[in-house]
């Protein structure tokens, strides 16, 4: 069933009401087909879950009626997406679907384990370890088994904290077949990035940032004398290490034997706790580590971690924090209280609850100080008396249940090429522009439907042929939750309807190549059968429409059309200036739910060649291809991107500070990166307004707009948006040169440092690397 229901970002405005008749009919149809696992997912359900909860009630009612009519109970499972994962509807749906697939298995295993406990005379209530390093009840785990998905490695991290007393540092858990490496922050595992791919499926439920390597103490090492290389794993002697390794008198060459021979490992300048059965492989000192701790009972750290009696509660939603300091403090206190209430409901003793995560990320382009707030509270598990209900055998479990409610041409015609294009668009977004991920899915959908992507050079467009740009307008965070449909096409059709000459549209193009808007024309062109011009009006991402080169060089942006998913279309026929168009459209976009499709006035091929930045689509593809190729070859993806874009790696280090605030609808702030390599003590600070604007090293200006300041993950070269930045990330800053059309005096007035409030700075010419 597909129903565009849910809420706008404010959590109070319904996108559309639930069609209960459609829900009931769909459930009956699924039950007739033998389907008994259901997922309910609504737009912005982590902010307002009432529609998901109501659909669950309808499902339960229909399942009960079907059970009565059939004369036997139907064992069904219902997963509500807001109970499983966070903001980001596609990732949350994927996580919920994975959870639904695991629930039948959990419904068998967990009660069987409880029954085995009873048979062994073990009294007490069963808890399972979760991905975040705390415990959840057996009942909750049956409803959301996915939250235990990677609890194994986390147990070792928690055990290392307990055994060593260290709360911040690195933990290495060396087993027989694998080695897990994780980071501790304030005694808890550092969470992974906002999205995590599992077997190629992108999800966003809470997972720890743990690197698992198929290399354990017992991994086989096979030497190839003919070329001087060796293969490590995947075979392992496992628990027979002490008898089969060469160092133990056996005949199998293992990683343990290599470690005994070399006795050398390298890490960053942090304390390291070594645990696991292979902990003895490490020296008492490791090069680059400030200290090495091998605590007593290190071999059983995993079991120790699993026994730590703490539970947690979490809030992840969108809140209006404007209206003064008192209002902001009250709203945050209420959110924190809600997270604490969840922890208490999970079994925490109220007096022991502590807030361990409190993040606030402003929503760009949204007025009123609206921000995404993420709070996590951890508390000690209070004593819970054993009850018969908690140990019920499988047949007494309810049939339906849920967790407790919470308040470039032909080369861009295959999936691999769209991956490269999306990667390049992310880099050219310079921290803004929105994630290209969803737009890439739209492109692949059109390819699967038989659509064709035909990219043409701007030089081949006939002089009088009409070309129009189209893309999304709104807040990137909203766009990750409220998926766009055909709003951009609606905006394009508004131009056709308003054109008195009824001139046909020859091709489409992007306004900005950076971020998701760089891919939107590919989906539009494939769906409409129109070619895509290899050009754009920014050559990167910028936050406002007057920063388009078409506007800078005198092409009128009106009539401009803005459309939403409800069928509303607003056309601005004329405005005093491009800046006025921005001022007029932003409030309308907010009224449309902070997500709309925009298309400014079409232009002829002759005008296009005068005002457009040429070659943007192919540039993005080449950048992405360079990164993916380097990654596959295990080469330096960051340097590959810099070289392909004609730029340099400016800085590499660790993010040590991030500050954000909303001002005039923009996410403004800065982040700092500390050099951890050759130039220790150097600090790069980057100011941003949605996109990265100005970079200094120890107070010295290094690069500024309009040149591109791109923040990439050091490991793999993935582009990072400003809302993804957090303490501890290892990043590399790449500088790429702006297109000459952005460096003229008239352009610098609109996109140079002064246009963003840096009146005392002059635009820099692209510079060489500083480290």
UniProtKB/TrEMBL annotation:
Annotated Hydantoinase/oxoprolinase N-terminal domain ranges read 7-62
**Which Gene Ontology terms cover its molecular function?**
hydrolase activity
Looking at the record, the residues that make up the S-Me-THD-like C-terminal domain are 577-759
Classification via Gene3D superfamilies: CV3147-like, CV3147-like domain
- InterPro entries attached to this UniProt entry: ATPase_NBD, Hydant_A_N, Hydantoinase_A, Oxoprolinase-like, S-Me-THD-like_C, S-Me-THD_C_sf, S-Me-THD_N, S-Me-THD_N_sf
All copies of domain Hydantoinase A/oxoprolinase, residue ranges: 92-265
For the S-Me-THD N-terminal domain, which residue ranges apply? 422-573
Question: Tell me, what's a Pfam family for it?
Answer: S-Me-THD_N
- Give the stretches traversing the membrane: none
**What is the protein's given name?**
DUF917-domain-containing protein
Q: Which organism is it from?
A: Coccomyxa subellipsoidea (strain C-169)
From the broadest rank down, the organism's phylogenetic lineage runs:
Eukaryota, Viridiplantae, Chlorophyta, core chlorophytes, Trebouxiophyceae
């Amino acid at each position: 069933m597909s129903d565009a229901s849910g809420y706008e970002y404010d959590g109070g405005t319904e996108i559309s009401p639930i069609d209960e008749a459609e829900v009931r009919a769909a459930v009956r149809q699924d039950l007739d087909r033998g389907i008994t696992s259901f997922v309910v997912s609504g737009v912005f359900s982590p902010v307002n879950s009432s529609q998901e909860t109501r659909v669950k009630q309808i499902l339960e009612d229909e399942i009960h009626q079907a059970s009565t009519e059939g004369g036997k109970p139907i064992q069904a499972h219902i997963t509500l997406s807001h109970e499983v994962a966070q903001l980001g509807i596609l990732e949350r749906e994927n996580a919920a679907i994975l959870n639904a697939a695991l629930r039948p298995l959990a419904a068998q295993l967990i009660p069987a384990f409880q029954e085995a406990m009873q048979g062994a005379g073990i009294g007490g209530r069963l808890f399972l370890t979760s991905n975040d390093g705390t415990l959840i009840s057996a009942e909750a785990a049956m409803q959301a088994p996915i939250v235990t998905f990677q609890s194994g490695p986390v147990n070792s991290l928690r055990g290392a904290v307990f055994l060593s007393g260290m709360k911040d540092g690195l933990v290495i858990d060396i087993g027989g077949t694998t080695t897990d490496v994780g980071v501790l922050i304030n005694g808890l595992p550092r969470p992974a990035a906002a999205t995590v791919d599992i077997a190629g499926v992108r999800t966003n439920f809470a997972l720890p940032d743990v690197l698992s390597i198929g290399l354990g103490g017992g991994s086989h090492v096979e030497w190839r004398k003919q070329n001087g290389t060796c293969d490590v794993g995947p075979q392992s002697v496992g628990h027979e290490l002490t008898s089969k390794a060469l160092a133990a008198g056996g005949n199998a060459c293992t990683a343990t034997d290599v470690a005994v021979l070399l006795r050398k490992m390298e890490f960053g300048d942090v304390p390291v706790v070594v645990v696991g059965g292979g902990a003895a492989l490490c020296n008492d000192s490791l090069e680059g580590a400030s200290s090495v701790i091998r605590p007593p009972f290190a071999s059983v750290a995993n079991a120790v971690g699993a026994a730590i009696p703490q539970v947690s509660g979490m809030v992840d939603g969108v809140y209006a924090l404007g209206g003064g300091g008192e209002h902001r403090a009250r709203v945050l206190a209420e959110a924190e209280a809600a997270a604490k209430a969840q922890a208490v409901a999970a079994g925490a003793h109220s007096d022991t609850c502590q807030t361990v995560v409190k993040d606030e990320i402003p929503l760009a382009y949204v007025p009123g100080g609206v921000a995404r707030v993420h709070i996590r509270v951890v508390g000690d598990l209070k004593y819970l008396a054993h009850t018969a209900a908690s140990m019920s055998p499988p047949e007494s479990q309810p049939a339906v249940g849920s967790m407790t409610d919470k308040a470039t041409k032909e080369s861009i015609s295959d999936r691999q090429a769209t991956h490269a294009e999306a990667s390049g668009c992310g880099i050219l977004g310079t921290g803004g522009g929105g994630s290209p991920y969803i737009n890439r899915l739209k492109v692949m959908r059109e390819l699967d439907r038989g659509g064709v992507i035909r990219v043409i050079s701007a030089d081949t467009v006939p002089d009088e042929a009409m070309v129009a740009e189209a893309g999304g307008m709104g807040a990137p965070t909203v766009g990750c939750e409220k998926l766009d449909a055909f709003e951009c096409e609606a905006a394009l059709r508004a131009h056709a309807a308003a054109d008195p000459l009824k001139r046909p549209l020859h091709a489409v193009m992007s306004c900005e190549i950076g971020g998701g808007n760089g891919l939107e024309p590919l989906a539009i062109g494939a769906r409409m059968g129109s070619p895509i011009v290899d050009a754009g009006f920014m050559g990167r991402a910028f936050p406002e429409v007057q920063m388009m080169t078409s506007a800078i060089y005198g092409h009128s942006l009106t009539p401009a059309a803005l459309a939403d998913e409800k069928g509303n279309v607003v056309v601005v026929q004329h405005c005093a200036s491009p800046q006025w168009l921005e001022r007029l459209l932003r409030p309308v976009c907010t009224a449309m739910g902070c997500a709309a499709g925009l298309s400014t006035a079409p232009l002829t091929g002759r005008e296009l060649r005068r005002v457009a930045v040429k070659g943007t689509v192919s540039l993005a593809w080449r950048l992405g291809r360079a990164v993916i190729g380097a990654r596959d070859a295990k080469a330096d993806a960051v340097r590959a991107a810099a070289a392909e874009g004609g730029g340099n790696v400016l800085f590499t280090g660790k993010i040590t500070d991030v500050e954000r605030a909303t001002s005039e609808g923009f996410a403004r702030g800065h982040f700092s990166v500390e050099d951890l390599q050759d130039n220790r003590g150097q600090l790069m600070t980057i100011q941003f307004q949605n996109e990265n604007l100005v970079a200094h090293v120890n107070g010295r200006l290094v690069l500024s707009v309009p040149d591109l300041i791109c923040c990439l993950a050091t490991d793999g070269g993935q582009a990072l948006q400003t809302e993804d930045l957090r303490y501890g990330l290892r990043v590399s800053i790449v500088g790429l040169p702006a297109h000459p059309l952005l460096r003229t005096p008239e352009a610098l007035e609109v996109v140079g440092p002064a246009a963003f409030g840096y009146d005392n700075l002059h635009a820099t010419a692209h510079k060489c690397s500083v480290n």
